[in-house]
């Protein structure tokens, strides 16, 4: 679909993919991102897992808190 990238580039009218529900403090919405930003997000997740494997980050549990 075409819409607003809600990740890093914030471009509108671009091809985006639904990434899942997002839990804001007072509501639940839907998160969309473009291919370029999703690739960057994947890179950061892999980097986080790599660092976690090295024991440099505390385990904050499995529930994501984006805001
Ligand atoms: Zn983007």
Give a quick rundown of the structure:
With 67 residues, the protein is of the alpha+beta class. It has 1 helix and 3 strands; from the N terminus they run βββα. It has one helix at 35-53; strands at residues 2-3, 14-24, 27-34.
Could you characterize the architecture of this molecule?
With 67 residues, the protein is an alpha+beta fold. Helix content is 28%, strand content 31%. A three-stranded antiparallel β-sheet has the order 1-2-3. A hairpin with a 2-residue loop joins strand 2 (14-24) and strand 3 (27-34). The chain is flat, with a radius of gyration of 14 Å. It starts with a strand and ends in a 14-residue tail after the last helix. The mean pLDDT is 89.
- Seen as an oligomer or otherwise, the chain set is single chain
Content of β-strand: 25-35%
Tell me the number of strands: 3
Report on the biggest sheet: 3 strands, antiparallel
Provide the helix percentage. Answer: 25-40%
- What number is the mean pLDDT? 89
Content-based structural category: alpha+beta
| Main sheet: strand order | 1-2-3
Radius of gyration: 14 Å
């Amino acid at each position: 679909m075409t819409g607003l990238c809600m990740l890093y580039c914030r471009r509108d009218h671009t091809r985006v993919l639904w990434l899942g529900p997002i839990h804001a403090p007072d509501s639940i919405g839907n998160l969309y991102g473009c291919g370029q930003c999703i690739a960057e997000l994947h890179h950061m997740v892999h980097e986080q897992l790599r660092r976690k494997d090295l024991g440099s980050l505390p385990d904050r549990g499995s529930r994501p808190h984006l805001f």
